[in-house]
Amino acid sequence: MQLKFNVEEGCLIVEMHGELDHHSAEGARIKIDNKIEELGINKLIFDFSGVNFMDSSGIGVIIGRYKKLKDYDGKVAVVNLKPQIKRYLN
Amino acid sequence: MFRNEMKLEFPSKSVNESFARVVVAAFASQLDPTLEELSDVKTAVSEAVTNAIIHGYEDTEGIVTLRCKIEDNKLVIEVEDNGKGIENVELARQPLYTSRPELERSGMGFTVMETFMDSVEVHSEPGKGTKVIMTKTFKSA
After folding, report:
1. What ipTM describes this predicted complex?
2. Sequence-distant (≥ 6) Cβ neighbours of residue B82 within 8 angstroms
3. Where do the domains of chain A lie?
4. CB-nearest partner of B36 from A59, A63, A84
5. What's the CATH fold of domain B3-137?
6. Cα–chain-centroid distance for residue B132?
7. pLDDT 10s per residue in chain A (90 long)?
8. How far apart are the CA of A11 and the nearest CA of chain B, in angstroms?
């Protein structure tokens, strides 16, 4: 899974590309957490426009970051979900 | 009745999760599924195989066996491990339950399988292993 980081108005945007499963979740989680700590940011947007597959491991990644940033009064958002993945989150 | 079947064995490495779901999708494609049906099957397989790897075998390595059968327009998928088994299947199937919260699991694996497949059976014996049998009938076929 490829990750691209952008910062806009104090918000970390993570552009994700590829398939988010248990195998790829591990690496994604570490990279995102490192970036959050490096920048000391508490607002995170997951951009899922490049994610064409996700299973419950992906939910673990989103919820995990949400719990982490909640401790710093932060916020997490998920945008650009493909229909199949959106169905999954509903 | 049209029948077909396949069997695949692979070591419990996480990199094989994507391999397993792509194989099942390729096998199921002979039923002329919709993209949505195919995505449902891939997600359910991913959940079952991930469970075998992280819960069945935990940090050890074992063999995961994947069997698929086609009976007319019905697909039957079996995912089997010879790992540690599940003490309480009913509890394990509860939404949000996870036996390994330290791994940041969502506890939604079985719920996802149940949502995306027509039926999900779990046979498990502590110390021996777990077999998950899922079926889905393809409307398009």
Report:
1. 0.91
2. B56, B62, B63, B128, B129
3. 2-89
4. A84
5. Heat Shock Protein 90 (3.30.565)
6. 6
7. 999 999 999 999 999 999 999 999 999 999 999 999 999 999 999 999 999 999 999 999 999 999 999 999 999 999 999 988 888 777
8. 23
Strands B119-125 and B129-137: antiparallel
Q: In chain B, what are the domain boundaries?
A: 3-137
Catalytic site residue B93? no
Q: Report chain B residues whose CB lies below 8 A from the CB of A57.
A: 50, 105-106
**CATH ID of A2-89, from 3.30.70.270, 3.40.1350.10, 3.40.50.300, 3.30.750.24:** 3.30.750.24
- Contact residues on chain A for B47, CB-CB shorter than 8 A: 55-56
Is any Cβ of chain A less than 8 angstroms from the Cβ of B96?
A: no
C-beta separation of A14 from A45 below 8 A:
yes
**Residue keyed to tokens 């939604």:** B108
